[in-house]
Structure formats: C-alpha cells, structure tokens
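Figure 3 (text version): structure tokens given as input.
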C-alpha cells in the first residue's frame, strides 16, 4: 500500500508539473534582429552585420529553452559601404556566399547563472562546417508580450574555414547578437 501511495503521489506531482510548465513559441522579428561582426587587422578593421532569414525560440516557464536561426550571409551589410571590401568578403577568401548563402545556429542548451544572464550552447553551421559554440547572453525580456536578448563574444574564423590573411588579420572576430521576437 505504501509503494502504491508513493507512486500515486509521484505521478500526481509529475502531472501537476507538466500542466503548470508553460512553453511559449516565439517568431524572431527579422527586421530588427541582427548579428554584428568586426574583423580586426593590425592596422584597421572591417565590420558589418548579417540579418536573419528566420528564427524561432521556445521559452519555458519564462526562461529561454531552445531556438533555431537562419542567418542571411549573402546579403551582409558593411558598417562602411564605401570601403569597397564587399566583393572580397563575398569571395572564397571569406564568406563564399555563392556556395554558402546562409548559416544556421541551433540552441542546444541554456544554463542560467542569474535571473537574466545565461550561457547558451549550440551548433553553428557556417560555410558547411558545423562546430559547437558556447557564449554568455543576457535575456532582457521573455514575457508573453515579447522577447529580447543580446550576446557579445568572440568567433574563431579559422574554425569555419576563413583563413585568409593569417598573421595580418586576427583569428577572432568580435560578435554582437541582438534578437527580438514575438509569440
């Protein structure tokens, strides 16, 4: 009888937990969301941003739990379009946009360290190469009205086959991610 009561209580608790666990699915606002980048040479830098073609997020009990994003690599924008570097960045030396017009990031886990700060781990596929990434992020809002998060981290370009300018261009590219989404 005692075992049956314990199993019954455990089952009721699990059912209660599953009923009370609220998951909201969000669609990324592709007009406002972007991924900024800055590549630094020893004497200067080049920067710009990628927009998102699409993206979805899942927030469970008010916390980011998963997501998937497709970045538009082909139509990147330069911070200074007058520098004439766009054609070279589109070539095989850098982004190789004719062969790889998009990149994808899949969130695999989110570990919160404070109410709003977390570490996001996932897989990035860029230029046909998939690697695990882990970076800190701040979730400013994850309510039923909307979602906003930002992250700043370094991206090792050599990991994704961007080896041009070795010794002249630093291997790490600075990244800033801004994600806006609505349920």
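Below: residues designed for each position.
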């Amino acid at each position: 009888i005692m075992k049956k009561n314990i199993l019954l209580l455990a089952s009721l608790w699990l059912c209660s937990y599953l009923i009370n666990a609220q998951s909201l699915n969000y669609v990324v606002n592709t007009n406002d969301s972007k991924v900024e980048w800055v590549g630094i040479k020893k004497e200067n830098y080049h920067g710009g941003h990628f927009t998102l073609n699409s993206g979805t997020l899942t927030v469970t009990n008010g916390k980011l739990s998963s997501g998937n994003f497709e970045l538009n690599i082909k139509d990147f924008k330069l911070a200074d379009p007058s520098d004439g570097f766009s054609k070279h960045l589109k070539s095989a030396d850098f982004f190789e946009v004719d062969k790889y017009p998009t990149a994808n990031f899949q969130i695999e886990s989110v570990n919160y360290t404070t109410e709003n700060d977390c570490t996001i781990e996932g897989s990035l596929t860029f230029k046909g190469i998939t690697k695990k990434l882990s970076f800190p992020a701040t979730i400013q809002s994850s309510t039923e009205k909307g979602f906003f998060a930002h992250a700043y981290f370094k991206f090792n370009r050599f990991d994704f086959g961007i080896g041009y300018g070795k010794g002249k261009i630093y291997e790490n590219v600075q990244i800033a991610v801004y994600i806006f989404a609505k349920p």
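The chain has a mean pLDDT of 90.
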